[in-house]
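Worked Example 4.2. Consider the chain below.
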Amino acid sequence: MEKAISEQYIWNNHRACFNASHHTSTPIHLMILLYLLYGCLVLIATLNLLMMRRPSGVAEVCFEVMIPARDEEHNLRLVLPPLISGGAKVTVFNDESTDRTGELAGELGADVIAPSQALPKGWTGKNRACHELSRASTHEWVVFLDADTLPSDNFVAALSHFLASRPDRVRVVSGFPQMLPGQGIEPAYLGWVPWILLAANPFGLVAVTGKGHVRFTNGQITAWRRETLLDAKPFESLKGEILEDVKIGRMLAKRKEHVEIANLSGILKVRMYWTLAEAIDGMSKNSADIGGSVIGSTCFAFLLFFIAWGWLIGGRAAFPLLGLLILSKVLTDRIVRAPFWTFPFLPLTVTAAALTVFRSLLWKQRGAVKWKGRTYDHR
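Applying the procedure from the previous section yields the following structure tokens:
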């Protein structure tokens, strides 16, 4: 009897060990993959926080500001005064506005350009505006600035010092402003935009080492050396693109033109959208182009789903993995000074990003891409 009990105990023990080894061998390999994935996000976000340069100081103004504007009367009251008082030359392209955009820009001290004809077929409004502004440029550096940005009082002085100190190899400078929150849960939704960019692209490392290409520019603010701008003709080359800033970055990488991405949160702010509905529609207009193709963007969306919820299959390591994922958001939020309360919602935020990509793909397939009162056919 005792022998039978002993044999049964040994058999149960061996079976338990076999089952444990059988059930933990695959999760261990999967956990290694997940730790590498989430660890890379944290590492890149940390390097960007520490290495991305921040404009400061004072220098003689070496740039002019170009602002494409369509029905931006309200925003021009905020963006123009610190630029004009800082001594910058400002030119506004009045893109067939129906309000007092052109008149107000002139009253506040900007030069105003108006189109000679309606928007030609095959162009987006912003690309046409920026192309015409490029042709009117005269200064060493040409800074394109969105009308909904908010420059600080020292924006002109600090950016002048920063641009003047760039080595000659740096032909284009872009960066990340401080992100001002919209209403309600809009910041929790939109938080995926800076997180994806700043946790996946080693902007700071490229800036410090001068090696590689960032393949990105931010359409909210981009500064060009004028000779590079006129030679590349980026807005004419990509005249029909809605995601023109990202595609300009890719074009510059092919041309081997060096782009530096800076932390501009100390001198520039932006509120992209006021409401959640505006944010979802705004991001749906161009997210389909993130992956470069329908297949690429679809794969990218599924990758986002995996990143958002992959930690759940980490077993006992699930919560440490989730901690790494959330830490990557905390770090990127420090760069753009986003509201602190949004970071616990990152899995839901990233899920919303994936759904936005799918929605954008649907819009693109239907050709129903609407923005700024215009409809663009991108089938």
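Residues 1-5, 14-26 have pLDDT under 50 and may be disordered. The radius of gyration is 25 Å. Compare this with Example 4.1 before moving on.
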